[in-house]
Amino acid sequence: MHYHWDLAMVLADTDRWWHGIGITLLYSVATVVGGIVIGVFCGLALLSPKRWLTLPLEAYVEVFRCTPLLIQIVWFYYALPILLNFSLPAWLAAGLGLTLYMGAFCTEIFRAGVMSIGRGQWQAGRAVGMTYAQLMRRIVLPQAVRRMIPPLVNQSITQLKNTALLYVVAVPDLMYTSSIITAETYRPLEVYTSAAVIYFIMLYPLTLFAKRLETRVDR
Amino acid sequence: MTADEPPMIEVTDLVKNYGPVPALRGVSLGVAKGEVVVLIGPSGCGKSTLLRCLHLLEEPTSGTIRVGAQQLSFGGKAMALAGRKLAAYRARIGMVFQHFELFPHMTALQNVMEGPVTVKRMDRRTAAELGRGLLVKVGLAGKEESYPAQLSGGQAQRVAIARALAMSPEVMLFDEVTSALDPELVGEVLSVMRQLAEDGTTMIVVTHEMAFAHDIADHVLFMDGGAVAEHGPADDVLVRPGNPRTRAFLSRFHHATALRSAG
Fold this sequence. Notes:
Largest sheet of chain B: 6 strands, mixed
Largest sheet of chain A: none
Number of helices of chain A: 9
Oligomer: heterodimer
Helix content of chain A: over 70%
Order of helices and strands of chain B: EEEHEEHEHHHEHEHEEHH
Shape of chain B: globular
Number of strands of chain B: 10
Largest interface: A-B, 18 and 29 residues
Radius of gyration of chain A: 21 Å
Distance between the termini of chain A: 52 Å
Order of helices and strands of chain A: HHHHHHHHH
């Protein structure tokens, strides 16, 4: 093979690359934050004994965990408008799908984190006369949050990669930008390799961070 | 303690069922201020359930509990107490558990301060002073900054006692607090409890340490099958039991103790 690499040509338009990276990071941060907010509320609500409250939340979590994210994004963009009679802009449909997907996983992480605190701790808190709110704030959550951080970081890493699905609804993230540049330059090898390297550079430090967290929590 | 003073804690006809299974079948008892009551009996006899009901960690099925001036009746449709009132009731009663249940994310001192600061809104400085004093009292001066994972079982259990004392409870409940300890660590916890008894703390103690029970108890209740089978002064119940079931239970213990001292 005598392929002549021409990275300079595909990387020439640095503004467009930076824009793509910016969109990818923006969607990652926004949907992770949105997902965590959903997770906190739904996760805590799932601890309630009231079935009318927990049943719909369980349904939400399972629906979003057991269907492909790609279908969710496409569904919000192409299918939901038929039901609503007005169409969501692509950026919103994709953002909604990504956020609800992250929210479903965060809900499970929060619920599991709180459940992992043993009955004895609850009783010990009650024994000194704490109310439910005090018990949560002072005893259960501080311990549970430490256990939630490693899975949350892992899920966030997955989420950043998942933003590449923005491609299907033409939101100009890193992946979509790559496909446009490929179409213009006919250099898929250089473009997609560059994109992969950029994703790797963004995520590798995060995985190292996650590993460090896990060893610290184990201690 | 005068004889005609009404008992500080009075339990009447307390029943607790777990579904169809009765755990307490109408237990009554009175505890005077400053008195030490020891509950003994075979496992599953309901003695721990009684403590948990007293603390309302379990809601009794029926009966009444009076602590001081507060009278609670169970068996109605609603819970006898809920929310803040329930929390306030529990704050008056100290409880020490078999497995310590210290808060692992807090130091020994923070564990002791937690109740006063969070529940009683005591300022941190006063609470720290109180906490240090209590840690000295249970023989743990110098362990203030240790985390529970760095403490032995005996030390952890003494921190748990200090944590309960920090709320200045009207009565202390001890639920088999030495059962999870290595034998060589039992003594240090018992000696703290002995000191508390001498100081006039009102205590209800569930224990399998018969010699200790005999030393500290003003009153002993032998429970069997969810009911009080025999009760009276420690000497009567532990040394000259009248009920054959008490005798059978104690003889198993003497046997075990004899084996232990022989080995």
